[in-house]
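Deliverable D5.2: sample structural annotation.
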Amino acid sequence: MRMWFARLAGTMANQMLMVAVGWHMYDLTRNPWDLGLVGLYQFMPALLLTLVAGHVADRFHRGRIIAACMASQALVAFILVAATQGWGAPSTWASRELLLGISVMLGVARAFQMPAQQALTPMLVPAPMLPRAMAFSSAGMQAAVIGGPALGGVIFVAGATAVYSACLVLFVVGGVLLGRLRYEHIPPPREPVTMRTLL
């Protein structure tokens, strides 16, 4: 259940953050092109890093990979809170360039998180319960993917800072739950990294 709640919190926060960054960008520039760039910058890392992320998930401790990705997304949310509040500056320092850079960071984190997350569930439940666990996990993911943007949009009415703060809390909760997971990681035999091992 810890994994399920951690995954739900992380996915919900990520979906909320994607919506909030897009709205924030449009508020700043009023340019539909920039809004499209936000989506592109979030998507491209997942496409470009597919093979590398899968290889990393196979070779290294999956729980730690997911925790690191959650921590990086929490850092992103914290930076956005600081930027919208103008911490360390006389006014807000949120900018087009910052939001595009943030979009890339989110895309990279998701690219490494997804394969590790999907491969971790079979290591946490007995084989007879795996189909039910996978169905339960998938249902939670779909609920977060549908509910996250809607919730993010509602909270955005109170301002971008409110959404970013909520995402920060959810990422921290997800990271804490992941830190409490216990399973035996059996590293695969060491092989040189080649195109064959990546595929």
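Annotation notes: The chain has eight helices and no strands. The helical segments are 2-29, 32-48, 50-59, 62-85, 96-124, 130-156, 160-179, 195-198.
The annotation will be released with the project's public dataset once the embargo ends.
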